[in-house]
Design a protein that fits this description.
Distance between the termini: 16 Å
Number of strands: 0
Order of helices and strands: HHHHHHHHHHHHHHHHHHHHH
Oligomer: single chain
Helix content: over 70%
Low-confidence stretches: none
Radius of gyration: 23 Å
Mean pLDDT: 88
Length: 478
């Protein structure tokens, strides 16, 4: 069940909200956790019992950890909980990949491949694993008190707006909201607005651009011209942003409807002035998680330049692997890690002396090249597409398959232009309106025109939903 489906919009969400507001306050956490489990079971019923069992074990371990005073025992329980969660993630997400590599090695040595039944990847496992680790670490560090009941714990782990594809909400960010929260008219209005914007980002921008990108990326790179290779790369660059940022906006909006305020996950990443700045703006919840639970424990910025660069590489190699069990993701992480290491090197001042507009252009160019790695199925495919981007090799002959109308329509060109204008002009304007430091009045009270605008955008999105095909969010596979 995805947020951009008729099943969710017209059935699950209205029924959930109706039940939530008629449920007594003291039972709302139980009700929301139960509804969230039903939401998850709809998409992953075969994994549900294992998921619930792992949550129960984790909850009991952390209760014992919170009650312990002996530091060594606390550390043992922390390690035990982390090993259980990471072990489950490794088995479900990476065992197929590791066995595949062993099979290739065995074939090279003339040995028979190991017998293996492929493991089906449970949806959302990368995200709820990080939530579970955040919970145990925050309690271990005494940054937060443990939940007072299993229902509260399950609400944090399973809350359906962030369960499948984030944002990654660290426990200490919402622990007080789990215990005490209020629903206001302003919160409801903002929630509807954020959900509507996210829905439009997905259905009106990401999906049409994804159709173009999928058409080009499915073809042999050797048969695609340089111009069409750039078209596929650029459309995917905007598709993944509007798809993932759209999901995050919908999740934030849904949380607001029941009184939760999630941290933002995107902040105009395509106007970043460096790759470091890009990661302060892109998937910010992952960047913060990696910083607080991996980079800083490794030494962070408190070590020498060589060790710091090594820490960055480790973090981004693992970040790449977190995105998927494929060498393309590992190399994508290494690609970004190399830029971050450079931006902390002695040569970095040469780059940062460039005009801001030029730095933005260079950064966007580097990020766009990285998306080729991210989107390609294999490293050889990514290298071939990079080669075509720069015009290496003979230009393939034009064919009927590459008549412009078969690749991108006039409407598609319009959507691509809208995506570019939105990223460069409209988002900064909306952000300035939303976060005006001298004006504390809620946005919807200052700009009444947003009410009919939201309704118009919602109607357009529903029309696109009815006319289109099922298109899951890109990050569901992670």
């Amino acid at each position: 069940m995805v947020f951009s489906s008729a099943l969710f919009i017209f059935y699950f969400l209205p029924l959930f909200l109706a039940g939530y507001f008629v449920t007594p306050r003291r039972w709302r956490n139980v009700y929301t956790a139960a509804a969230s489990i039903i939401f998850y079971a709809w998409g992953a019923p075969n994994f549900l019992l294992i998921f619930l069992a792992s949550c129960l074990v984790d909850y009991l371990i952390v209760r014992q950890l919170a009650a312990e005073a002996e530091p060594s025992r606390r550390k043992t329980l922390l390690v035990l909980s982390t090993l259980i969660n990471v072990g489950l993630l490794l088995y479900c997400k990476y065992s197929n990949f590791f066995v595949e590599q062993l099979s290739l090695l065995a074939a090279a040595l003339g040995l028979s491949a190991p017998h293996w039944t492929k493991v089906v990847l449970p949806i959302g496992i990368s995200f709820f694993t990080f939530h579970k680790i955040s919970y145990v670490v925050d309690v271990f560090r005494r940054k937060s008190e443990p939940t007072s009941s299993f229902a509260e714990y399950m609400l944090y782990i399973t809350f359906f707006p962030q369960l499948i594809a984030g944002p990654i909400v660290r426990y200490h960010e919402i622990d007080q909201q789990i215990r005490h929260r209020q629903v206001s008219f302003d919160g409801l209005a903002e929630g509807v607005w954020r959900f509507t914007l996210g829905l439009a980002s997905k259905l009106l921008i990401a999906d049409p651009l994804g159709t173009v990108a999928d058409h080009i990326f499915k073809l042999n790179p050797a048969n695609v011209s340089t111009g069409y290779t750039w078209l596929g790369t650029v459309t995917y660059t905007f598709q993944i942003y509007f798809d993932f940022a759209g999901y995050s906006s919908m999740a934030i909006g849904l949380a607001l409807l029941v009184g939760f305020r999630f941290p933002e996950n995107f902040n105009r990443p395509y106007v970043a002035e460096s790759v470091t700045d890009f990661w302060r703006r892109w998937h910010m919840s992952l960047s913060r998680w990696m910083r607080d639970y991996l980079y800083i424990p490794l030494g962070g910025n408190r070590v020498g330049p060589v060790r710091q660069a090594t820490n960055l590489w480790i973090v981004f190699l693992l970040s790449g692997l977190w995105h998927g069990a494929n060498w393309t993701f590992v190399c994508w992480g290494a690609f970004h890690g190399a830029f971050l290491a450079f931006e902390r090197s002695r040569l970095a001042p040469l780059f940062f002396r460039l005009p801001a507009l030029l730095r933005r252009g260079v950064t966007l160019f580097a990020v766009t090249l990285g998306w080729v790695l991210f989107r390609s199925e294999t490293l050889s495919e990514a290298l071939a597409r990079w080669s075509r981007l720069f015009g290496f090799g003979p230009e393939p002959k034009a064919t009927a398959a590459f008549a412009r109308a078969t690749v991108i329509s006039d409407a598609g060109i319009t959507v691509l232009a809208v995506a570019a204008v939105w990223c460069v002009l409209i988002e900064p304007l909306l952000e300035a309106m939303q976060h005006n430091e001298t004006e504390r009045t809620p946005l919807f009270q200052r700009v009444p025109a947003l009410y009919p605008l939201a309704l118009a955008i919602f109607v357009l999105s529903i029309l696109a939903l009815e006319a289109g095909q099922y298109s899951p969010f890109i990050y569901f596979q992670f």
